[in-house]
């Protein structure tokens, strides 16, 4: 159902698609991943996970930047998701190819024993 009853669905959909195309053309796609590692995970293993995450840009086309860090916000609102990773893609197609890519899937396979929780958000940065 349309947000405005006086506009047909196709008009609303066309406007949403046009806005998405404008945002993509003038932006970069950021993929934000946050982890809460299990308390039993050794610091060296967390460091290795971060290193391996960064290596994905060497084997998956379309990644234009990678960075990571540890939350230091004084607000106390991270819900324990304190390890933050940002992957920047050249396009939505590059992100979409990254998700099922064998190298990414191997990396995800490493996380099952050490990650307690994860949150992922993507957005077009300006």
Describe this structure in words.
- The protein is built from four helices and four strands; from the N terminus they run H-E-H-E-E-H-H-E.
- With 126 residues, it is α+β, with helices and mostly antiparallel strands.
- Strands 2-3-1-4 form a four-stranded antiparallel sheet.
- The longest helix has 17 residues, at 9-25.
- The chain is globular, with a radius of gyration of 18 Å.
Mean pLDDT: 89
Order of helices and strands: HEHEEHHE
- What is the C-alpha radius of gyration, as a whole number of Å? 18 Å
Low-pLDDT residue intervals, each spanning 5 or more residues: none
| Main sheet makeup | 4 strands, antiparallel
Number of strands: 4
Number of helices: 4
What's a concise summary of this model?
With 126 residues, this protein is of the alpha+beta class. It contains four helices and four strands; from the N terminus they run H-E-H-E-E-H-H-E.
């Amino acid at each position: 159902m349309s947000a405005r009853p006086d506009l047909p669905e196709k008009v609303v959909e066309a406007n949403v698609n046009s806005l998405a195309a404008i945002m993509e053309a003038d932006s970069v796609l950021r993929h934000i991943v946050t982890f809460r590692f299990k308390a039993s995970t050794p610091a060296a293993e967390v460091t290795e996970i971060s290193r391996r995450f960064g290596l994905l840009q060497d084997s998956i086309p379309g990644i234009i930047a990678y960075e990571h860090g540890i939350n230091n916000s004084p607000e106390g609102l991270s819900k324990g998701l304190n390890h933050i990773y940002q992957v920047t893609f050249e396009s939505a197609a590059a992100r979409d190819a990254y998700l099922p890519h064998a190298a990414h899937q191997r990396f995800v396979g490493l996380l099952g024993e050490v990650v307690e929780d994860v949150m992922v958000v993507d957005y077009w940065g300006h």
